[in-house]
Amino acid sequence: MVRQQWDPVFHIRSIATYITNTTDSSRPQFDLKGKRIPIPDSVTRAVIASFLRFKIICGDFEVPENQIRIIATEATREALNSAEFIAAIKKETGLTVEVLPKGEEGKIGAMGIASSFTYVGGLVMDLGGGSTQISWMVSREGQVQTSPAGAFSFPYGAAAMTRILDDIKAGKSKEEADKALAKLREDMKKKFLDAYRNLEIPQELIDIARLYGGFQLYLCGGGFRGWGYLLLYQSQVHGHHYPISIINGYKADKVHFESTEELKHIAHTANKIFRISDRRRAQVPAVAFLVNVLSEAIPFGIKEAQFCQGGVREGVLFQELPIHTRREHPLQVATARYARPSAMALGDLLLSAIPISMGNEPRSFPRSISTDIIRSLANVFFEYSDVSKESSSSAALSSTTTGILASAHGVSHSDRALLALMFEERFEGELPPREADYKTALSDILTPEEVWWTRYIGKVAMTVARVYPTGVMEEGEPRVKISAQWVAGLGRHGNKNGIELKFSVPKVPNDPLMRKPVLEDLLHVIQKVGKRKNWVGGKEGWGIKVKVIVEEDEWVDGEEVWHIEGQPFDVESQGYQSASRGQLL
């Protein structure tokens, strides 16, 4: 697979624009009485100052001015003095502002969601300050399908809903306010239901929702991300230890997503909430109202909500990428810079340790661990190898969440956990108590089956690293060949099914590399993974018996054919495709 080299992308933190107290801080284009006003001069000056600073930062990174792109969305498009605002920016900074048409904004926002996941299949929503949009999306292998009707937009943004709820309650008795809120709720439910019926949702998505208890809901926009950070906070306090604090890829099931009263209480009482500003905190009751309406309006309900960082900015970039680049798995792209020259061959070795399933085995390799994740492990194989033994496992464990791969966009939390756990096992998996607790929390994101396979693959990776300590494999002169198959007759009484893993080394008199002794010394490390007492969850948990064989063979110089049970074995022809986002089995 040809890898593309990309220049680094740097995200600069947002520069606040200060708004005078003559405007509504949640809606700066309205005065305190709710009357629509032009963008204030103070805001225009602050925006211009921010762009001038931004140009200097771009210069520091040697970004040519003709490659600076400024895109404006709804707030600028709908402003009373939009043309004057854009002209002032052009005059003072020399930068041209592109204003996205309303229809185009929805499509590009959808592309931002597509950029955030390797697969999308369900309803998608964007919650900004002034409006919310709803549509559906299926995104796989770089191809994105959305509703031919586009996205349906409603004036129910986080800030707008805050104003609506405040206005409903102002000057009314509780009974009058409750009646008005009930009417608003019914009006909103009707509009969302009408949108659902007119979105032309594929029957495949409807059938999945009916069968599995609701739609997958993919959420973007500041309003929903604030809700996601509240859920994340809830999962990290009072004895809960969710291990990843990256909002992109965070998931919440139906029960937690719809726990509106509990989240409103947290927003009201908590002293400080990670990534929640006072402005977002004030909008929580409005977002809670919207979530309640959604849960009641959407047929079959919501099974799971997935939060994403992607928006218009990410959508613009993703839209410009060719299909073959979109198709690449983000972890493979992110790890490519760390790959040694023989990373592809090392990946092939790891893949050859996974037995091919014929469909009749009692256990099989999980499809959730894709070829891309295995090859990503091969890419980072030797990162932290220069770190002391007491720190290398810890560094590898945190690599996908706070380390070298934390900034990788479009990676699910489960994929981050899979790679981190395999990478940590490659360094023998010995951790101090603090990191051991973190490893347990990462493992809890996955199924017991997935956790067991991370241990197995990680131990095989550790063995391969001992054979190739520099990560360089000389072409035509392999030091070891690996094969694996499902077998019966294992265990003390010969009544267990499991994996037979074979390491073959060339028969070399007085071998200076000591290949066979080195492998035999590590044999027990891999076999221990298959012992019942070491299964995930203990003796009654999940695991597979493993038998490891180390043998010397007579090899023909330069021979590239591997043999299993006397039959030629070729990695690619057996289903281990190197195409990105492919599955192993």
Low-confidence stretches: 1-7, 16-26, 558-585
* Terminal residue distance: 19 Å
The CATH homologous superfamily of the largest domain? Hypothetical protein af1432
Radius of gyration: 28 Å
Mean pLDDT score: 87
Organism: Exophiala aquamarina CBS 119918
Domain Ppx/GppA phosphatase N-terminal: 43-322
Domain RTG2 C-terminal: 329-552
Protein name: Retrograde regulation protein 2
Summarize the structure.
This protein is an alpha/beta fold.
List the helices and strands and how they pair.
Blueprint: E1 23-24, E2 27-31, H1 41-60, E3 70-72, H2 74-77, H3 82-93, E4 97-99, H4 102-114, E5 119-127, E6 132-140, E7 143-146, E8 152-154, H5 158-169, H6 174-198, H7 203-212, E9 215-220, H8 222-234, E10 251-253, H9 254-257, H10 260-269, H11 278-297, E11 302-307, H12 312-320, H13 323-326, H14 330-335, H15 343-351, H16 371-380, H17 389-397, H18 413-426, H19 433-443, H20 448-467, E12 481-490, E13 496-506, H21 515-529, E14 545-553, E15 562-564, E16 567-569
Parallel strand pairs: 3-4, 5-9, 9-11, 13-14
Antiparallel strand pairs: 1-2, 5-6, 6-7, 6-8, 10-11, 12-13, 15-16
